[in-house]
Amino acid sequence: MFVPKYAQNNDVAEIKAFIRQNSFGILVSQSMDKLIATHIPMEFSHDDSRLLGHVSKANPQWKSFERDSNVLAIFSGPHAYISSSWYDHENVPTWNYVAAHVYGTARIIEGDELYQALRDLVNRYEAASSTPVSIEGMSPSYLRQSMQGLVGFEITITAIEAAYKLSQNRDQKNHAQIINELDARKDTGSRQIAAEMKKRKF
């Protein structure tokens, strides 16, 4: 991923927190002569060294892991259009955004490993439910049948990079004006980007 110097973020803890908050990502892999991408949730392992997820067995992407285990997981956060009419000088419009790329090698997981990954995923997202379901609460026969339709995977992380493009290349006056304009908008993305900019204001 091309990241301008001013937009680079090397705070691994912050990047991992961002990925946790935006865990529905895009998994990209190479299959023979083409790229394959799937939109799926991916979660960190307990030691943060791996990403865990699963795809439908009907999805041919899992077969690519056996031929070339190198994969890329893309996680996107808030983004917003930045109008150059907000500056006090002539310039071009742009886009502010937050995104992270995780590179690694994938391997298929089965049995207890897959069960644990599914349990952790369900428990995380059911935590806010008023009547949460759990893997443990499902009948063994139904769970076994459901797992047969899935292929689990584990990505051993080799590199993480992130872009926090938040108008850091603007002076204090223009930076503040961009925040004001974004705050005045009603869409969630603009307001979230304004909030991220405030964290890093001059």
Summarize the SSE layout with pairings.
Layout: H1 12-21, E1 24-31, E2 34-41, E3 43-44, E4 50-56, H2 61-67, E5 70-82, E6 94-109, H3 111-126, H4 140-148, E7 150-165, H5 172-184, H6 188-199
Antiparallel strand pairs: 1-2, 1-5, 3-4, 4-7, 5-6, 6-7
Helix pairs in contact: 5-6
Please, could you describe this protein's structure?
It is a single chain. With 202 residues, the chain is an alpha+beta fold. It has six helices and seven strands; from the N terminus they run H-E-E-E-E-H-E-E-H-H-E-H-H. The chain has helices at residues 12-21, 61-67, 111-126, 140-148, 172-184, 188-199, and strands at 24-31, 34-41, 43-44, 50-56, 70-82, 94-109, 150-165. Strands 2-1-5-6-7-4-3 form a seven-stranded antiparallel sheet. The longest helix is centred in the middle third of the chain and has 16 residues, at 111-126. The radius of gyration is 20 Å and the shape is elongated. The two termini are 26 Å apart.
